[in-house]
């Protein structure tokens, strides 16, 4: 079992695959806010070929979920545990699209990041 923790602050996200290998099973990534959607999506698209045994993925930070990112996420067939941040309601739909293609997923943790306290109060939570 090989685990890798990455903080992508100060360097380009596209170089992350250089650290991956076929024995990697756990990956925790904290991308910097300036990471583009394209670089994150292309990274996910390459994981199944580079690290086919990846079973735990933690993606914390300001990644914008989209249809293309969800499609790339859906290619991680061995993924059993996923932890992600979501900052807008529209992103949850895209995230769910990707989850539909993960037959091994057993554990999902979604952190809903909200800067507007009125949103939480409107949902009956404080």
UniProtKB/TrEMBL annotation:
This is F-box domain-containing protein. The lineage of its organism: Eukaryota, Fungi, Dikarya, Basidiomycota, Agaricomycotina. It comes from Laetiporus sulphureus 93-53. It comes from the Eukaryota.
């Amino acid at each position: 079992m090989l685990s890798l923790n990455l903080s992508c602050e100060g360097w380009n996200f596209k170089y992350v695959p250089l650290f991956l290998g076929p024995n990697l099973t756990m990956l925790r990534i904290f991308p910097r806010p300036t990471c583009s959607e394209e670089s994150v999506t292309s990274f996910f698209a390459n994981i199944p070929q580079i690290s086919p045994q990846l079973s735990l993925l933690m993606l914390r930070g300001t990644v914008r979920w989209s249809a293309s990112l969800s499609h790339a996420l859906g290619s991680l067939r061995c993924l059993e545990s996923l932890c992600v941040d979501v900052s807008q309601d529209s992103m949850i739909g895209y995230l769910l699209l990707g989850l539909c293609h993960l037959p091994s997923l057993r554990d999902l943790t979604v952190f809903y990041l909200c800067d507007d306290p009125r949103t939480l109060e409107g949902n009956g939570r404080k």
